[in-house]
Task: inverse folding
């Protein structure tokens, strides 16, 4: 089924549109994220849905140079008449971000007084934001908390969509969790949403994507009805875990082959007087696990403890 | 990256009373065993539903260290035993661990017929180019000019490309990896375990004490580092560029086809006969 016929099939039995008349001015949705997350898929679903409703739709995207890991954005505009395919600064009605820093980057495009900001708290840290290889080292990644952002935006939701999708068994369904969240903002009917979503996802993943959609939709409904205290908890800052590495070496199993000593990228290990591998520079260890993987005698085990766990152990 | 890693502890899958294992310092077989256990862990294969069959040799000994149903069989015959086991118990995941001498010399016949039948099995061949356990005799995969106890002036026989052999014999899944890349090896073994047919995986391992010492290849860490310069990664498999020597072996998934699986075909034929 190609996309044209998908849209035609949806057209055949769609209900008359309730907010058709209200959209004399185009409705602007900006979808941003990182290559490979499914930004284009979200915009396709939205465009097909709006088109099936009889709206004029214009969509514009940048994805070619991004590949996996680069910035991707997609403008979707729909209404009775749409002239330009791109959304100007301060004109987006809804901003959906599949990645935290990408969401912040595009915030100026959102309408200051009425815009809705829906953002996954997923953090994809680009390599050039890492200043050194030490565990827990500072990096050039946004430090804004969700609370600070919500003070700037009229309506903001920081939703941990990737974790929700992971719990469903497929982290790639995170974009559909966000579609579920988006469905509470737009006045398309629920069956239409589900029909469009299922027509765009691979057949094998329809069940998980339907569940993801429900999850995202319910999350927003709950966030809207929550008391302010709960609300603050829901909008908590994305926690960046600081890890520290700790090596557990089983001396009795070590056969002094020196592979760990010679292959450690940070040169943290040496053989002691008994020719047993020993950690001599724990502060340099980045927890890369190379020693654990390459130890043919299973004598090394790398533990990556979060800062919280370290504090707990010290107590 | 870090979030999913901590859950795998190889020691959960080992018979700790057998440790430390008998392999020499720096032997690559330990890394291959880790990759296999890691793959089994990630696929959440129940240990009661896992049967590891192995033959004789350094690689054959590995089954003894796995805390699962293990079967240490006669020299060259693990594939024959495993064929019987997989046919009688199609509910089991049968994994064969074998070495280059075990699989290609004494068991060469069993290998080609196992490939031809395409029974659902995973055969992990650890290739260290030598008979390490018996004192370093030449094996079918020993490279030309290499020194062993039986080729004191250098090997003059051409060696086998085990993956090409398995592909030609009709194996459903054929792959090769080096011990240096443990996570890649794990991914390859995972793909092999999920393949609905005969999966042949060759792991290029280091024999540091015998092969390395006889051929003056340096310490075990130097041998691990050497793997990087001598292997051609799968991304460059079709490359004819100069940086790779003509003797380099390609790694990664080398063949994948979906021929009918032997066990299912045999059961269907038996059911059809019973229905008559």
Result:
């Amino acid at each position: 089924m190609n996309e044209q016929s998908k849209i035609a099939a949806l057209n055949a039995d769609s209900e008359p549109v309730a907010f058709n008349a209200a959209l004399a001015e185009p409705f602007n949705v900006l979808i941003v994220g990182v290559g490979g997350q499914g930004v284009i898929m979200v915009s396709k679903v939205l465009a097909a849905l709006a088109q099936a409703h009889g709206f004029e739709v214009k969509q514009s995207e940048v994805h070619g140079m991004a590949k996996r890991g680069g910035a991707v954005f997609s403008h979707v505009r729909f209404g009775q008449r749409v002239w330009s395919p791109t959304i100007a600064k301060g004109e987006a009605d809804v901003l959906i971000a599949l990645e935290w820093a990408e969401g912040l980057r595009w915030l100026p495009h959102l309408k200051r007084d009425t815009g809705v900001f829906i953002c996954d708290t997923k953090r994809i840290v680009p390599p050039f934001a890492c200043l050194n290889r030490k565990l827990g080292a500072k990096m050039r990644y946004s430090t804004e908390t969700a609370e600070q952002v919500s003070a700037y935006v009229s309506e903001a939701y920081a939703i941990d969509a990737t974790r929700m999708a992971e719990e469903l068994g497929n982290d790639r369904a995170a974009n559909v969790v966000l579609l579920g969240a988006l469905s509470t903002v737009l006045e398309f009917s629920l069956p239409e949403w589900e029909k469009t979503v299922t027509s765009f996802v691979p057949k094998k993943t329809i069940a998980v994507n339907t569940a993801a959609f429900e999850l995202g939709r319910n999350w927003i409904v709950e966030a809207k009805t929550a008391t302010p205290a709960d609300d603050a908890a829901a909008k908590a800052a994305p926690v960046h875990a600081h890890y520290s590495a700790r090596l557990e070496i089983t001396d009795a199993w070590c056969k002094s082959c020196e592979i760990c000593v010679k292959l450690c990228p940070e040169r943290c290990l040496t053989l002691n007087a008994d020719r047993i591998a020993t950690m001599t520079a724990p502060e340099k260890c980045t927890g890369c696990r190379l020693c654990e993987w390459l130890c043919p005698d299973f004598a090394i085990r790398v533990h990556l403890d979060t800062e919280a766990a370290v504090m707990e152990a010290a107590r | 990256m870090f979030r999913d890693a901590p859950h795998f502890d190889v020691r959960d899958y080992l018979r700790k009373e057998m440790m430390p294992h008998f392999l020499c310092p720096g032997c690559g077989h330990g890394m291959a065993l880790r990759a296999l256990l890691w793959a089994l862990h990630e696929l959440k294969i129940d240990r009661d539903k896992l049967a590891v069959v192995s033959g004789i040799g350094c690689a054959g000994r590995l089954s003894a260290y796995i805390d699962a149903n293990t079967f240490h069989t006669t020299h060259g015959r693990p594939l024959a035993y495993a064929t019987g086991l997989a046919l009688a118990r199609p509910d089991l995941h049968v994994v064969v661990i074998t070495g280059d001498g075990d699989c290609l010399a004494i068991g060469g016949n069993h290998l080609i017929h196992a490939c031809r039948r395409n029974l659902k099995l995973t055969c992990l061949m650890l290739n260290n180019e030598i008979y390490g356990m018996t004192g370093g005799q030449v094996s079918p995969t020993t490279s030309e000019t290499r020194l062993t106890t039986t080729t004191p002036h250098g090997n003059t026989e051409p060696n086998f490309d085990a993956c090409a052999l398995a592909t030609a014999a009709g194996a459903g899944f054929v792959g090769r990896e080096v011990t240096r890349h443990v996570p890649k090896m794990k991914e390859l073994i995972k793909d092999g375990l999920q393949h609905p047919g005969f999966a042949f995986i060759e792991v290029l391992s280091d024999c540091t004490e015998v092969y390395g010492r006889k051929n003056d290849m340096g310490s075990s860490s130097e041998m691990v580092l050497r793997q990087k310069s001598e292997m051609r990664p799968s991304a460059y498999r079709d490359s004819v560029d100069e940086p790779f020597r003509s003797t380099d072996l390609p790694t990664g998934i080398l063949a994948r086809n979906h021929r009918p699986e032997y066990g299912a075909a045999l059961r269907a034929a038996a059911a059809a006969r019973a229905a008559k």
Observations:
- The interface with chain B takes residues 243, 252-253, 255-259, 261-263, 287, 289, 293-299, 301, 303-304 of chain A (CB under 8 Å).
- Residues 129 and 140 of chain A are 5 Å apart (CA to CA).
- DSSP finds twelve helices and ten strands in chain A.
- The longest helix of chain A spans residues 206-225.
